[in-house]
Amino acid sequence: MQFIKQFLVLSLSASLLAGCGFQLRGSANIPDTMNALSINCGDAVDPKFCLNIQWKLQKSGHPTVPQENAEIILDIDQLQDERRAISVTRNAIAAEYELTYRLDFHLTLKDGIPLLPSATVKAARTYRFDETKVLSKAREEEQLREEMFRELSDSLIRRLSPFNRARITEIRHKHNTPAE
């Protein structure tokens, strides 16, 4: 009897979550309009980051296309990183750092109509630094950077999800209709 109650409560909870539109954070619902997406990476953007985004899109069934075949263009303008000491030891040596990435991008239609005129996503992590373990800490920092690249690319891809055909048609109509 107890098992049946637990099963019913679990089933009801799962139904409520599914009914309200809940999705796990990592799973973006990318519309079919992104099947004709081209990505332009600025000179200030790490090529590994751009490859990561292309790989994630392809993995989700939305490979990127050359710009001449694109309906939508994602311009990744800038990827800035900053590392700053946030705590120091009694000897005035950095004991903890904060690593921050800021990604600036915009999304336009091939005819120049802005879908997302200017957007920014950020990721930040802190880590302890021990001057006696420099090599392992350098490796740890590199792993943090890779993790942050994944987080930024996931955030960027989630920002693409509202741009389905109906939304793009609405934006195009508003852009082509003169303001009164």
Describe this structure in words.
- The protein is α+β, with helices and mostly antiparallel strands and 180 residues long.
- The protein has one domain: Lipoprotein like domain (Double Stranded RNA Binding Domain, 2-Layer Sandwich), CATH 3.30.160.
- Helices cover 39% and strands 29% of the residues.
- It has helices at residues 2-19, 47-59, 134-160, 165-176; strands at 37-41, 72-88, 94-109, 114-128.
- Strands 1-2-3-4 form a 4-stranded mixed sheet, with helices on one face.
- It starts with a helix and ends with a helix.
Cα distance spanning the termini: 67 Å
CATH architecture descriptor text:
2-Layer Sandwich
Query: What is the total tally of β strands?
Result: 4
Average pLDDT level: 82
Poorly predicted sequence stretches spanning 5 or more consecutive residues: 18-26
* Count of individual helical segments: 4
What is the name of the CATH class? Alpha Beta
CATH topology, what is it called? Answer: Double Stranded RNA Binding Domain
What's a quick, concise take on this entry?
This protein is of the alpha+beta class and 180 residues long. It contains four helices and four strands. Residues 18-26 have low confidence and may be disordered.
Main traits of this protein?
4-stranded mixed β-sheet; single chain; alpha+beta; Double Stranded RNA Binding Domain; extended; 180 residues
